[in-house]
Specification:
Number of domains: 1
CATH superfamily: Beta Polymerase, domain 2
Structural class: alpha+beta
Order of helices and strands: HHEHEHEEHHEHHHHEEHHHH
Strand content: 15-25%
Strand order of the largest sheet: 3-4-2-1-5
Shape: globular
Radius of gyration: 20 Å
CATH architecture: 2-Layer Sandwich
Number of strands: 7
Helix content: 55-70%
Protein name: Phosphatidate cytidylyltransferase
Length: 312
C-alpha cells in the first residue's frame, strides 16, 4: 500500500488505529451521555501508546451542542469560556475497572485551538501525537474530526519548522518542539520526556512532518535524511517573539484551568482518591463530608496533586 499523499489522508488513516474492545466500549458509553450532540471521541496519550488499560485513559469528547452534555450551569459556562472541561469516569469491562480522564469541548473550539496562531498550545501539542477516533457519530463526523486533528498536526509542524533547526532529520524538529511545549506548561516530567514521545514512533514522526509542512504552505528541501524548511531569518525571529508571548501566558492559563476544575471537575473526589492510591500505595476512604461537599474536598487536593506532579 502506498503512503498517504496528504496530511489529511495520513491523519484519517491513523485515526482508524485499533484499540482494545474495552476501551472502545468505554468511549461509546461516554459518548452516550451527550447523545446526538457528540461528534466524536478521541483517545490519546500513554495508554494509546502502550496499550495498557490499568492506568488512566485519556479521552477528548468533541461536541457540536453544549446543551447535550449533562453538566450544570457553572460547568457549562466554564466549557464555553475556558475549554476544555475535565471530568473523571469509571466503567467495568471484562471484570476490571477502567478509569478515564475526559476533556470536553466543542469541535469548533478544538479547531480554533489547534491552529498555530492560537495562544493555547495544548491542543496542537497533544494532537500532533498519535490518537485514535474511538467513537464517531457518523461518516461526516469522522471526516470533520480528522480534518480538525490534521489542523493540530499542521499547527505543531508550523512551530516545529520556525523554532527548530535549520536543517536536521525530522525527529529533531519534533524533539525540539515538544521540549519547548513541556517546558512552558506546569509539568514535572524529566528532561527526556519530549524525546520519549518521539522515540515511541520515530517512523511516524518522520513521515508526517513533510506532509504537515506542505499542508501549512512551508517549502522545504529534503536531502540525505534531513529536512531544511525554506524560512528566512526574519520569519524565524518573528516566530521566536510570538512563542515568547505564548510562553508567558501558558502557565497562567494552566493555573486558570486548574482553578476552574475545582468548581467543574465532575467525579473529582473519586479521581483524586484513585490517583493517591495508585501513586502512593495508600488507599483513600472517601468520607461522607467529601461526598456531600466535593468542591471543598477536590479543590485543595487537586492543587496538591498538581504541585506533586500526580495530576496532569
Amino acid at each position: 500500500m502506498s503512503a498517504p499523499a496528504s496530511l489529511s489522508a495520513f491523519v484519517a488513516d491513523e485515526l482508524l488505529c485499533p484499540v482494545a474492545p474495552a476501551v472502545a466500549a468505554f468511549a461509546t458509553e461516554i459518548a452516550g451521555r451527550g447523545g446526538s450532540g457528540v461528534v466524536g471521541v478521541l483517545f490519546y496519550g500513554s495508554a494509546l501508546r502502550t496499550g495498557a488499560t490499568d492506568g488512566l485513559l485519556d479521552f477528548y469528547v468533541l461536541l457540536d451542542d453544549f446543551a447535550a452534555w449533562d453538566w450544570g450551569k457553572a460547568a457549562a459556562r466554564g466549557a464555553k469560556t475556558l475549554p476544555p472541561n475535565v471530568e473523571y469516569a469509571e466503567a467495568t469491562a471484562a471484570g476490571m475497572t477502567l478509569r478515564a480522564k475526559i476533556a470536553i469541548m466543542s469541535l469548533a473550539q478544538f479547531r480554533d485551538h489547534a491552529q498555530a496562531k492560537s495562544y493555547d498550545t495544548t491542543i496542537w501539542a497533544r494532537f500532533a501525537q498519535p490518537c485514535a477516533l474511538v467513537f464517531a457519530r457518523d461518516d461526516a463526523a469522522r471526516a470533520a474530526v480528522a480534518e480538525a486533528v490534521a489542523l493540530a498536526v499542521g499547527g505543531a509542524a508550523w512551530w516545529a519548522a520556525h523554532l527548530g533547526p535549520r536543517s536536521a532529520p525530522a525527529d529533531a524538529f519534533w524533539r525540539a518542539l515538544f521540549a519547548r511545549t513541556y517546558a512552558s506548561e506546569l509539568r514535572v516530567e524529566g528532561a527526556n520526556r519530549s524525546s520519549s514521545i518521539v522515540d515511541a514512533a520515530p517512523e511516524r514522526y518522520a513521515a508526517i512532518l513533510p506532509l504537515a509542512l506542505a499542508a501549512e504552505g512551508i517549502g522545504f528541501v529534503e536531502s540525505e535524511g534531513e529536512i531544511a524548511p525554506d524560512l528566512n531569518d526574519q520569519a524565524r525571529a518573528d516566530a521566536e517573539r510570538a512563542w515568547a508571548r505564548r510562553k508567558r501566558v501558558a502557565k497562567p492559563l494552566n493555573l486558570a484551568r486548574l482553578a476552574k476544575a475545582a468548581f467543574t471537575f465532575s467525579g473529582g473526589v473519586d479521581y483524586i482518591a484513585w490517583k493517591i492510591e495508585r501513586h502512593s500505595g495508600h488507599k483513600i476512604e472517601i468520607t461522607p463530608f467529601q461526598r456531600r461537599h466535593p468542591l471543598l474536598a477536590a479543590g485543595p487536593a487537586l492543587w496538591r496533586l498538581w504541585r506533586q506532579g500526580v495530576l496532569r
